[in-house]
C-alpha cells in the first residue's frame, strides 16, 4: 500500500520524541498499519541534536508543511493557542489530517477545529493531549462506549504531581523541583499552566466532553492550582489518613456536569493516592463496567510520542474510510447541534466534604463560635482538632466536614474570617473519598 506521508511541525521535546519513535520502530509500525508511515517533512525553527535529520526535508516555515501537497498528515507539536490554531486550520483547508498533542488548542479552539475538519472530511486526533502516553482518550471514546459514565477523577498534570511528590518525600522547595521538572521536559513553556491548574483544566475539559457528550467549555472549568499548598497541610492531611493530590474531577449529577480542578485530600489507601512523580492516573466510573483505572507516564518525550504515533496509526487505518463512518472527534455524534446536553455546573453548586485549617485566639468560647457558624450554614462536622499553640497566642484548628454545598461553605468561611477570634484567612481543601472504587 501507499505510504502515509507525515509532516512534523515543532521539534522540541515531543517533536523529537515523535521523530525518533517513528524512525526507530518504522518496521513494526508499518506491519501494524499495513503500510509505511514516513516522515516527509519537518517544520522547525532549528534542528534538534536528538534527531538525525539526514535525508529529511526540513523547512523553517511550518506553514509550508500545511500547504505541502506531498503531506497527508500534519503533526502539530509547536504548542500554544494562536499560531497552532492558524496552522491546523490551514492544514485542514488543504485537506490534511491532523495529529496534535496540544490540549490548550483542543480545549479552547476544539469546537471550531472539529467543525472545520468535519466539513473537509479529515481526522483530528489528540490522544497525546491528555495524560501523555496513557491511552485514556481511546479508552473513554471507544473502550467504554457502552457505558453511561458517572464520574471521572484523575491526576492529569505530570509536572504538578512531580512537584508534590518530591516536596513531600524529600522536603525540597517548590521552585527547586519545578526547575527539575522543566529540565526533564515535563513542564509547559509557561509553567504557571502546570502549577495553577490551567493545563489540568484543559485536559479535564477534553475528558468531560468525551465522557458526557458536552461541547468543549474550558471557560466554565473551575481551576485552582498547587501553589498555595503548605507543608503544614500536607502534614495535617497525613495525620488524618489522607494525601493531598491535584485532581481533575468531572461528575454527572441530576442538575448537570461538574468540571473542577483543585488540590484534594484523598484517603491514603486509594489507588490514586499512590500515583507519584510524573505518573498520571485517571479513574473512570461507568455504570456497566464499574471503576476502571488508567495509569502511566503523563509527560516526557517518548511517552508522549507513544500517543502521537498511535494516533498516526489510527489515521493510517482510517484514511480511506468515509468521514461519516469514523469515530466522532469527541465520541458522540452531533454534539455541536445537540442542545440536549447537560449544563456545566457552577462551582457554588457542587457538593463535597472539606478540610479547613484556621488560626484562632486561644480563649473560651472560640470553638463554640466556630461550630455555630458551620451549623448555621448546615455544615456538619466530622472531626475537629485544636492543636498546640504555634504562633504566640494563636492555635491552629483543623476541621473535617461532612459533604455540603460549596455555596454554604463559601458563606461559612466568609463569616469565620470575619470573627475577631480568627486570624488571617481560612485554608480550605476539598476532600473526596472516591468511595465507589
Ligand atoms: N512535554 C510534554 O511532556 C508534553 C507536551 N505536550 C504538548 O506538546 C506540545 C509540544 O510541547 P513540547 O514538545 O514540550 O514543547 P517544546 O517547547 O519542547 O517544543 C515546541 C517546539 O516548537 C517550536 N516552535 C514553536 N513555534 C514554532 C513556529 N512558529 N515555527 C517553528 N517551530 C516552532 C519551538 O521552537 C520548540 O522547539 C505542547 O502543546 C504541549 O502542551 C503534551 C503532552 C506532554
Ligand atoms: N506539562 C504537562 C505535559 C503533559 O501534558 C504535564 O506536566 O502534565
Ligand atoms: Na493520552
UniProtKB/TrEMBL annotation:
Matches recorded under Gene3D superfamilies: 3.30.70.260, Dihydrodipicolinate Reductase, domain 2, NAD(P)-binding Rossmann-like Domain
Q: Where does NADP(+) bind?
A: 9-16
Q: Does the keyword Amino-acid biosynthesis apply?
A: yes
Domain of life where this protein originates: Bacteria
Which top EC class is named for this enzyme in its record? oxidoreductase
Q: Does the keyword Amino-acid biosynthesis apply?
A: yes
Reported EC number(s) for this entry are 1.1.1.3
Offer an example of a GO molecular function term for this protein. NADP binding
Question: Which annotated residues bind NADPH?
Answer: 103
Q: Which positions does UniProt annotate for L-homoserine binding?
A: 188
InterPro entries recorded for this chain?
Answer: ACT-like_dom_sf, ACT_dom, Asp/hSer_DH_NAD-bd, HDH, HDH_cat, HDH_CS, NAD(P)-bd_dom_sf
GO terms, biological process: methionine biosynthetic process; threonine biosynthetic process
The protein's UniProt keywords, in alphabetical order, are:
Amino-acid biosynthesis, Methionine biosynthesis, NADP, Oxidoreductase, Threonine biosynthesis
Q: In which pathway does it act?
A: Amino-acid biosynthesis; L-methionine biosynthesis via de novo pathway; L-homoserine from L-aspartate: step 3/3; Amino-acid biosynthesis; L-threonine biosynthesis; L-threonine from L-aspartate: step 3/5
> What is the active site of this protein?
203
Q: Which reactions does this protein catalyse? A: L-homoserine + NAD(+) = L-aspartate 4-semialdehyde + NADH + H(+)
Q: Which PANTHER family match?
A: HOMOSERINE DEHYDROGENASE
Q: Which family does it belong to?
A: Belongs to the homoserine dehydrogenase family.
Q: What is this protein called?
A: Homoserine dehydrogenase
Tell me what organism the protein belongs to: Kushneria phosphatilytica
Lineage in the entry?
Answer: Bacteria, Pseudomonadati, Pseudomonadota, Gammaproteobacteria, Oceanospirillales
Amino acid at each position: 500500500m501507499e505510504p502515509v506521508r507525515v509532516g512534523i511541525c515543532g521539534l522540541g521535546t515531543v517533536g523529537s520524541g515523535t521523530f525518533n519513535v517513528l524512525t526507530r520502530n518504522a518496521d513494526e509500525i508499518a506491519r501494524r498499519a499495513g503500510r509505511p508511515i514516513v516522515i516527509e517533512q519537518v517544520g522547525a525553527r532549528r534542528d534538534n541534536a536528538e534527531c538525525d535529520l539526514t535525508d529529511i526535508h526540513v523547512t523553517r516555515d511550518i506553514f509550508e508543511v500545511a500547504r505541502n501537497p506531498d503531506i497527508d498528515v500534519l503533526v502539530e507539536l509547536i504548542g500554544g493557542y494562536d499560531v497552532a490554531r492558524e496552522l491546523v486550520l490551514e492544514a485542514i483547508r488543504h485537506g490534511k489530517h491532523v495529529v496534535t498533542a496540544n490540549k490548550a488548542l483542543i480545549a479552547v479552539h476544539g469546537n471550531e477545529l472539529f467543525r472545520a475538519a468535519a466539513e473537509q472530511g479529515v481526522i483530528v486526533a489528540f490522544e497525546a493531549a491528555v495524560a501523555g502516553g496513557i491511552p485514556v482518550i481511546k479508552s473513554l471514546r471507544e473502550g467504554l462506549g457502552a457505558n453511561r459514565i458517572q464520574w471521572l477523577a484523575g491526576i492529569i498534570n505530570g509536572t504538578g504531581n512531580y512537584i508534590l511528590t518530591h516536596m513531600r518525600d524529600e522536603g525540597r522547595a517548590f521552585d527547586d523541583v519545578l526547575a527539575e521538572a522543566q529540565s526533564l521536559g515535563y513542564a509547559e513553556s509557561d509553567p504557571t499552566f502546570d502549577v495553577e491548574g490551567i493545563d489540568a483544566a484543559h485536559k479535564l475539559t477534553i475528558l468531560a466532553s468525551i465522557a458526557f457528550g458536552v461541547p468543549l467549555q474550558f471557560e466554565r472549568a473551575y481551576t485552582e492550582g498547587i501553589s498555595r499548598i503548605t507543608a503544614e497541610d500536607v502534614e495535617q492531611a497525613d495525620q488524618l489518613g489522607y494525601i493531598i493530590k491535584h485532581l481533575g474531577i468531572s461528575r454527572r449529577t441530576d442538575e448537570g456536569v461538574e468540571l473542577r480542578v483543585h488540590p484534594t485530600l484523598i484517603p491514603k489507601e486509594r489507588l490514586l493516592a499512590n500515583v507519584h512523580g510524573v505518573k498520571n492516573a485517571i479513574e473512570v466510573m461507568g455504570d456497566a463496567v464499574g471503576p476502571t483505572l488508567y495509569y502511566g507516564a503523563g509527560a516526557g518525550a517518548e511517552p508522549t510520542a507513544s500517543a502521537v504515533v498511535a494516533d498516526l496509526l489510527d489515521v493510517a487505518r482510517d484514511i480511506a474510510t468515509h468521514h461519516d463512518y469514523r469515530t466522532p472527534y469527541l465520541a458522540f455524534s452531533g454534539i455541536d447541534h445537540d442542545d440536549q446536553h447537560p449544563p456545566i455546573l457552577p462551582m457554588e453548586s457542587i457538593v463535597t466534604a472539606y478540610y479547613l485549617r484556621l488560626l484562632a485566639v486561644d480563649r473560651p468560647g472560640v470553638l463554640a463560635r466556630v461550630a455555630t457558624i458551620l451549623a448555621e450554614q448546615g455544615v456538619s462536622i466530622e472531626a475537629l482538632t485544636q492543636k498546640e499553640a504555634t504562633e504566640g497566642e494563636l492555635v491552629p484548628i483543623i476541621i473535617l466536614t461532612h459533604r455540603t454545598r460549596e455555596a454554604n461553605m463559601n458563606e461559612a468561611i466568609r463569616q469565620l474570617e470575619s470573627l475577631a477570634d480568627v486570624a488571617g484567612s481560612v485554608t480550605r481543601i476539598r476532600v473526596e473519598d472516591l468511595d465507589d472504587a
